Amino acid sequence: MEEFEIRMLFDLTKSLAGDYLLGFTYPWEALAGIGAMVAALGEGLPASEYDKCGENIWVAKDATIAPTACINGPAIIGRGAEVRHCAYIRGNVLVGAGAVVGNSTELKNVILFDGVQVPHYNYVGDSILGYKAHMGAGSITSNVKSDKSLVVIHAQNMEIETGLKKMGAILGDKVEIGCGSVLNPGTVIGRESTVYPLSSVRGVVGPGSIYKKAGDIAGKAVPLM
Question: Cα(134)–Cα(89) distance, rounded to whole angstroms?
């Protein structure tokens, strides 16, 4: 279970949510409180750096927001972030510093660490994306099982019951997701792993892996944290 712990997946200095996440062992435990966390964080942001643009919506003064973007609160758009044409931020969202939310991308109940890129036609729901994680064009998180049962994380030699009806994906720092991929409910991908384009990923992919397809996962060197 150690490889699924927050401390193994993320550099918590790379997000305003770092202190919040320290209160949990596993990342899916943090999903239910994202909205309240964002609202509380927002109230403490300096007015010299952030504008309050609506009910529980805070936007960094140096962020770039397209006029066609829709942002519902609670939401924080971090310093130097970019929210592009027709992006839809549905609420309970923290967009980290320098992150990119692309054209027609939809976010709901997510934490994007600093430097995350979801730049083209992505859906990310009930998920946490670590520092500099990147989702290729058209890749999405699927956050509800087709039979609407509770999400179970399928790991090697064990199944982890989350107790959640909605859980998308957890991506560790610097994960790369190829274009057109689907991350099925309860997917956890360790830091610095790469997923090939057009993949359907389910369960756990360890750190420093190259996911080609189910049953075909290679390894690569990953520096120690």
Answer: 18
> Cα–Cα distance between 102 and 121 in angstroms, integer?
7
Confidence of residue 219 (pLDDT cuts 50, 70, 90): confident
Least Cα distance to 171 among 215, 137, 141, 212 occurs for 141
pLDDT for residue 76: 98
Beta partners for residue 108, in sequence order: 125
pLDDT at 220: 66
Listed by start position, the domains of the chain span 2-219
The string of DSSP codes covering 112-143 is E-TT-EEEES-EEEEEEE-TT-EE-TT-EE--
- Kindly report the CATH number that applies to the domain delimited by 2-219: 2.160.10.10
5: enclosing H helix or E strand: none
Residue 61: CA atoms inside 13 Å, Cβ hemisphere, count? 7
Q: What is the mean pLDDT of the chain?
A: 94
pLDDT tens by residue, 156-165: 788 999 999 9
In 3-state terms, what secondary structure has residue 77? Answer: strand
Cα(134)–Cα(13) distance, rounded to whole angstroms?
Answer: 18
| 194: helix, strand or coil | strand
Q: Is 104 left (phi over 0), alpha (psi -120 to 50) or beta?
A: left
The predicted structure's pLDDT at residue 223? 52
Give the pairing type, strands 152-155 and 158-161: antiparallel
Looking at the annotation, which residues are catalytic? 120
